[in-house]
Amino acid sequence: MKYLKQFLIILLISLLGEFLKAIIPFPVPASIYGMIILFVCLLTKLIKLEDVKDAGKFLIEIMPVMFIPAGVGLVTSWGVLQPILVPVSIITVVTIFTVMAATGLVSQMMIKKDNKEVQ
Fold first, then answer.
1. How many Cβ atoms are within 10 Å of 34's Cβ, its own excluded?
2. What is the DSSP string of 38-97?
3. CB-based contacts of 55, cutoff 8 Å, min separation 6
4. Residue 54: which residues within 8 A CB-CB, separation 6 or more?
5. Backbone angles phi, psi at 87, to 5 degrees
6. What pLDDT shows up at residue 116?
7. C-beta separation of 110 from 117 below 8 A
8. Neighbours of 13 (CB within 10 A)
9. Are 44 and 51 in contact (CB under 8 A)?
10. Alpha carbons 15 and 22: distance in angstroms, whole number
11. In sequence order, what are the residues at sequence separation of 6 or more whose Cβ sits closer than 8 angstroms to the Cβ of residue 28?
């Protein structure tokens, strides 16, 4: 029963995100609205972490299964993707390294800032 309650809380927040997507004319996915709502609810203690923790862990554990339909879609669209495969691959690799570098730099800056505040 605990898992059902936790999953329903997450589902209701996702539904709220869908409503916001329909109402607000910005090109923001409904899942982003849902994550923001959940984040704010957790920060304000409107929802306690224990109220969604176990269901959230379960959803993270089964996340790889959610990529199967996307993979099948790529396989079925091979004819369309084949001519642009090289540019898309280059863009993907450059983006991955750019994000990794930016994340590393920001992390190092934050660690240095924390170390200075402690001293």
1. 22
2. HHHHHHTTSS-GGGTHHHHHHHHHTHHHHTHHHHHHHHHTHHHHGGGHHHHHHHHHHHHH
3. 3, 6, 7, 9, 10
4. 2, 3, 6
5. -60, -40
6. 80
7. no
8. 19
9. no
10. 11
11. 21
Render pLDDT for 17-46 as a digit per residue (tens, 0 to 9).
999 999 998 999 999 999 999 999 999 999
Tell me how crowded residue 6 is: count the other CB atoms within 10 A of its CB. Answer: 21
- Compute the Cα dihedral for 46, 21, 52, 38 and give only its sign: negative
Tell me the two tokens of residue 16: 């709220």
Amino acid found at 97: F
Residue type, 76: T
Position 118 pLDDT exceeds 90: no
Q: Which amino acid is at 82?
A: Q
Query: Left, alpha or beta for 29 (phi > 0: left; psi -120 to 50: alpha)?
Result: beta
How many whole angstroms separate alpha carbon 38 and alpha carbon 51? Answer: 11
